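Internal tracking record. Fields below are filled automatically when a chain is submitted to the structure queue. Please do not edit lines marked as system-generated. If the sequence contains nonstandard residues, flag them in the REMARKS field before resubmitting.
Queue: standard
Priority: normal
Entity type: single polypeptide chain
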Amino acid sequence: MMRLGMFLSILAAICAASGASEVRNLRGANATENYFRKSFTLESKPRTAVARVFADTGYELFVNGRLVAQLSEWANVRDYDLRTFLKAGWNLVAIRASNRSGHRGLAFELSVDGRQVVVSDGSWRTFPEERWGWVLADFDEEPRHVINALRPLGANVAMPV
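SYSTEM-GENERATED OUTPUT FOLLOWS
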């Protein structure tokens, strides 16, 4: 299995070479569990849609209110085909990120039809506790809690090996 530090370095190099936005490690206010949301718009239904997710030490990934994946392990970098979950127009990614000890954070990247459309950055919304309906489109995101968007991944990020 690829070590996390190597993955982060490779991902940072790919982003830099392609001119894509830099994926950032996100941390919410809660040391053990945070709820992240990001909405975005697609011009058309995607032909390809690949998401890459990492959360220390586990996560639940939802797209447009539907559960895509649930993992509870430290080495959890995974790619997911999101074609069937995305639609033309408004879309929502929601992630419950959990942490049992040590470092914590969430990294996410979504490429649609070969173009990067969403990355984890300071524009995401986060909540330190679960709220009813947080994975749904009509959820009231206010008040917004502060997200700590750390350095770009691979930029001298100290991660356990």
